[in-house]
Every structure is written in C-alpha cells, then in structure tokens.
Amino acid sequence: MKDLLELFFVFMKIGSVAFGGGYAMLPILQKEFVEKRHWVNDQELVDYFAVGQCTPGVIAVNVSTFIGHKRKGVIGGIVATLGFVVIPIILLLVIAAFLNHFSEYSLVKNAFAGIRVVVCILILNAIERLWKKSIVNKKALVLFGIIFLLTIFTSISPAILVICAAIVGMIICQVGGNE
Amino acid sequence: MIFIQLFIEFFKVGLFSVGGGLATLPFLYNLSDTFHWFTHSDIANMIAIAESTPGAIGVNMSTYAGYNVAGVAGGLLSTLGLITPSIIIILMIAKLLDKYNDSKYVQSAFFGLRPASLAMIAAAGVSVVKVSLIDLEAFQISGQMVDLFILPSILFAVVLYFLSKKTSWHPILLIGIGAIVGIVFQFAGI
Fold it and tell me: Would an 8 Å CB–CB cutoff place A122 in contact with chain B?
C-alpha cells in the first residue's frame, strides 16, 4: 500500500509539471525513476517511449502505465496513470469552468514562453543521455537520421515510422548481426 | 445517456489515435461534426489551453471538451474513456515483454525501435526550438538573419544548458525558473 501511494504521488508531481506532454517529461522521469529511485534504467525508458509511440493513446499515459507496471504490476500501472492525470484533470476543470480565456492572459503566455525554452534544453539533455544506449553503431545512426528527417519533413504517422523501424531492426539483425 | 456516450466516444479516440496528443485532433473534429458537442473554433481554443497547462495534451483536451458537454462528470468520464484503452493495451504489452524480453526477435526489434524513438524525441525538440528560439515569420518578412534568432531566449537557453550540466538541479526547478524568467522578461513579447 505504501508503495502504491508513493507511486501515485510521484506521478501526481510529474503530471503537474509535465508541460509540453510526453517528450518533455522524459528528463523528469530520468531524474525521479532512474537516478533517485532506481526503479527503471535509461534503456527501459527509451523502450517504453518506443512502444508508447506506436501503440494507441497518449504517449505520456502509455509511459506512465509502463513504469507503474514495472514497479507494482497491473495495479501499479493503473495507479501511476491515475496519479499522472489527476492534477491536469482538476486544473482543466477549473479552467473550463472559470477561466475560458486562460491561454490569452499575458502572464500565462509569458510564463509558457519561458518554460518552452527550458523544455528545449531538457529534451537536449535527455537525448545526450540516451544517445550512447540507443545509437550503438552506424546502422542505428543511419536509422536515427532517416526517421528524424522523415518526422520533420513529412507528415507520415509516427506510429508507422516506429513500426517500420522495428521491422528494419529485425531484418538488420537477421542479416548481419549487430555490428 | 450523455455520460455513457462521452465515455464510449473518447474510448474510441484513445483506441484509434496513435502517436501522441495531437493525433487525437482529427478525431475531435469528427466528434464535433457528428455530435455538435463543440465547434471547430472551440477545438482551437482547447488546443491553446491544453498546450499551456501541464500534462498530456490529449488528456487535457478530453477533460476540457467533456466538461463543456456535460459538466464535471462529463470531463471526468471523457478522460477516463480516453486513457482506458491505453492502460489495457500497455499492461498487455508489458506482460508480453516481461515474458519474451530475452527473445532474439524482441531484442532485434528494439535495436530498430530505440534509434527511432530517439529520433522522434529529437524531432519534438526541433519543433519546440522552432516556437521558442527562432522566429521564422519575422525572418521571412525581413529576410535578415538577425530576425531569425530570438536572442534573449537563446541566451537563456545557453545559461540553462550550463546550469543543467554543472548542477544536478531537478528539471522541475528549471521549469519554475523558466516560468519566472518568461514573466519577468516578457518572453511572449506582451
């Protein structure tokens, strides 16, 4: 029970500061779960994001369910996800009820413009940290480059790109091993 | 019964939208056309609000939309509907991965999945850079390189980068600093 409560409250904390959705919360997940609590490692986090991108639903929710499951099984997955959404739900209900012009206030706009700069750096930090574990050789680097360019310059669904990458990965490993 | 209908419709959105919060958009337009629960301009407002609040954009939009249709219970049920398929599917996959994690096929699939996942994260980073560190519109109008870069933001980004390297400050602290700097120096320009 104590573990479940901890799970709920950590995810509640993360949910209340995860501006910019799933990707921006990656560095916070690294800090809370890899460094402080050792519940998962960096590689597992990348794997969760990879699967979370090509499965239905919101990425942040998918990743929360994964981490919760790793920690405490099925109940853990549910508790973590509910923890993640509880503050945003309350906030959005308040905004929908009382502050319909919330996003037009200059205070909100300025704060968010500042937060966006932080999000750039947080994402950069996360990539630096995950680079070595994901880009293990030249083939992986080429795959990274192709998917990166396709994501930026085309409107192909991320899910399709991720699934193709998985298939390519299987073929590469079958044909030439991991080198 | 509007509550059951909201739950079911948002369950479908959660089940069929793949690839993150904004992937729910086409489904919301569809809901708007089918049920007239909200208009297209309501959706634009929802996106603006969902993007300037913490949490997942899809979750925030469904709460906001559900509230506008049927009050607090509507907001709750829409969001529960949205996340239920995710939870079920991920729990099933997590179980399978536990079982087959050492399999050669799973490992070779992840060999391709990991760089792809990182590429998507990097692409998301680029899209944030585009709205925070550079001003493409001003550059297109004036054609001058000076207008392309938003200097105060870039300066702040450099400071943040060194802070993140030299200290072990929690990302949440950096986010708080970002909000304050944004307000004090009027980063949105208003």
Answer: yes
